[in-house]
Amino acid sequence: MTSSDVDERHAAIIAAVWQVIAERGMAGVSMRTVAAAAGVSVGRIQYRFHTKDELLHSSLAAMLSGAADRYARASADAGDAEALWQLIAHPIPRTTAARAGVAIFHQYVAAGINHPALAKLLAEAKDSAEREAARLITRIAGHVQNPRTVARSLIAAADGLGMRVLTGGLSARAAERTLRATIERALGRAG
Which of 31, 51, 147, 153 has the fewest CB atoms within 10 Å, i.e. the most exposed one? Predict the structure, then answer.
């Protein structure tokens, strides 16, 4: 078996976790349900992940890593303002696939209340996003006082707008317009 085969099987198991969460919620995740969704034996799941908590931790780490990779690609050749937009706006689901991904992410957030390892991963990801946003804000609008606080506010606004889109209270387009206006105000560009 090649390293590529091992990576593909690992990815299939992680994708199966997300499928189970999407279909049954976090409570539906078990070695058996993930094995069924991945089309592998329970033993194969247990060989790679010894506990359900390990399975959840690895699947969340993969989701966060994927988001970081998407941001790196989207911002690689972008100016600072576009990079800030890519970083801040990702919680707003614009497609069906993004909607599923954001909904799954919120399941991890809810699970983090009772799973310290998940909470730690989530907190580290938000902290990293805040640092990067603050760096970009400083480059874009050096006059902004407390760029870290502004970054935190923008991230919180995007998270809230994303939840409004998920629950049907706001269209993605309206959420994006609102977020763009919020960013402009925070950078001192609009009244």
Answer: 51
8 A C-beta contact, residue 31 and residue 46: yes
Q: H-type helices in the chain, by residue range?
A: 3-24, 31-38, 42-48, 52-75, 80-89, 96-112, 116-140, 147-166, 172-186
Residue 59, burial from CB neighbour count under 10 angstroms (0-12, 13-18, 19+): buried
Provide the whole-model pTM. 0.90
Q: Which helix (H) or strand (E) holds 123?
A: helix 116-140
User: DSSP code of 188?
Assistant: T
Each residue of 84-132: pLDDT tens digit? 999 999 999 999 999 999 999 999 999 999 999 999 999 999 999 999 9
